[in-house]
Design goal:
By secondary structure, the chain is α+β, with helices and mostly antiparallel strands. Helices cover 43% and strands 12% of the residues. It folds into 2 domains: 81 residues, no CATH class; 220 residues, no CATH class.
């Protein structure tokens, strides 16, 4: 047994060495730098930061490089590193209404105050691969002759002007509906300490603050599938993208010894307000309801999926019948974490020799018993056949 263990250690060390060589790739090519990943694979970096609950683009880039581009492995690495960091306090809630906007769209209103800001997006591009060896992006299009560097489209606000006064020029779309009492009011600020799923085990039923934390850390693909299911009738949602914002917000920290908050810096976030139908109840008139999503970096697909699933999970609160997976909070929250899911699936690669031998022994025994019974039945039926003949 000791020899087998030592042999296993050598095999594992050799596997690590092969992984290191495979990660580096052909040494005829320059090694990928973290700055390249951080600046040119920003959407991958944003996903790692969001699902790892750790806002640090440099560390996310390192995790992506170390994992050879496997984003779930990168998320695992970033989460593991996060557990080693000291916790010295809690930031104040970020004020997304004061966001320095880089992109802002609404599917509800064409001419909303502040206008639509298309910003950086794939939404209006042709899905065509660029020529091999050439950059596939369009960063130089604006500098070509005949195309102004700053194109002001009718009804579209300038990004530059919005950045200087985002609060005054871009009120929330939900506020426009709220002025007519056509949408539910946001919950009043609570002084109760919100839950923290990184320090406390997830329990059911879960409050909305805990659900939103789980969704923010949840796997994008899993949430996308659930969000899609709600649109196909498995969740009673009829959504409109009320507003999607992407930009920078300031993070503040209130130091107890100072008695006032101090800014720590800015982070990029994507926020989604989804507007959904609601027929009303005995206690509430017909009105629109909300689903909410907020994630690090630019990740609109994740924020929208989060908002759709958040609304579906409010079924019990709104008195709706729970008939679909996306409405079942225990199903959703227990299976949305990709690190847990990865561990449960990939542990099947580890040795299960003893378990399998036990199953094999049991199956062989059952086979023998079945064959004995089958032989006995056949022997009993044989005289009857001969008599019939």
């Amino acid at each position: 047994m000791y020899v087998a263990v030592k042999g296993g250690e050598k095999a594992i060390a050799a596997a690590h060495e092969q992984l290191s060589r495979a990660r580096r790739g052909d040494r005829a090519f320059a090694e990928l730098e973290l700055a390249q990943i951080r600046e040119q694979l920003a959407l991958a970096v944003a996903r790692v930061m969001s699902e790892a609950s750790l806002y640090d683009a440099e560390l996310a880039a390192l995790a992506i490089k170390q994992s050879r581009g496997d984003l779930i492995e990168a998320i695992f690495l970033a989460r593991a590193y996060r557990t080693t960091l000291p916790r010295f306090g809690e930031s104040l809630p970020i004020a997304t209404e004061r966001m320095t906007i880089k992109r802002r769209i609404s599917a509800c209103f064409k001419d909303m105050p502040g206008g639509q800001v298309l910003g950086p997006t794939f939404d209006y591009t042709h899905r065509l691969l660029g020529e091999m060896g050439k950059a596939a992006d369009e960063e130089n299009v604006a500098s070509k002759p005949g195309v102004p560097a700053s194109c002001k489209m009718p009804g579209v606000a300038h990004l530059e002007s919005l950045a200087s006064d985002a609060t005054a020029s871009c009120p929330r779309v939900a506020k426009l509906l709220g002025n007519e009492a056509l949408i539910e009011e946001p919950p009043s600020p609570s002084h109760a300490r919100p839950g923290d799923i990184t320090r406390e085990p997830l329990g059911f039923p879960a409050e909305r603050d805990v659900r939103l934390q789980s969704l923010a850390r949840g796997d994008e693909g899993f949430l996308l599938g659930l969000a899609y299911s709600t649109q196909r009738g498995f969740g009673r949602t009829h959504p409109f993208a009320g507003e999607i914002r992407f930009g920078n917000v300031e993070v503040e920290f209130e130091a107890p010894e100072l008695g006032f908050s101090v800014p720590l810096g800015e982070i990029e976030v994507t926020e989604c307000d989804m507007v959904n139908q609601f027929r009303g109840s005995a206690n509430a008139p017909p009105q629109f309801t909300r689903g909410y999503g907020l994630v690090f970096g630019q990740s609109e697909r994740k924020a929208m999926s989060m908002a759709l699933v958040d609304r579906a999970l409010r079924a019990r609160e709104l008195g709706e019948e729970i008939t679909a997976p996306a409405q079942d909070e225990e199903f959703v929250l227990s299976h949305s974490d990709n690190v847990q899911a990865t561990g449960f699936v990939e542990h099947l690669k580890l040795p299960h020799y003893v378990d399998f031998q036990a199953e094999l022994f049991l199956l062989r025994q059952l086979r023998r018993e079945w064959e004995e019974r089958h032989a006995a039945v056949t022997a009993t039926q044989q005289p009857s056949r001969e008599a019939a003949e």
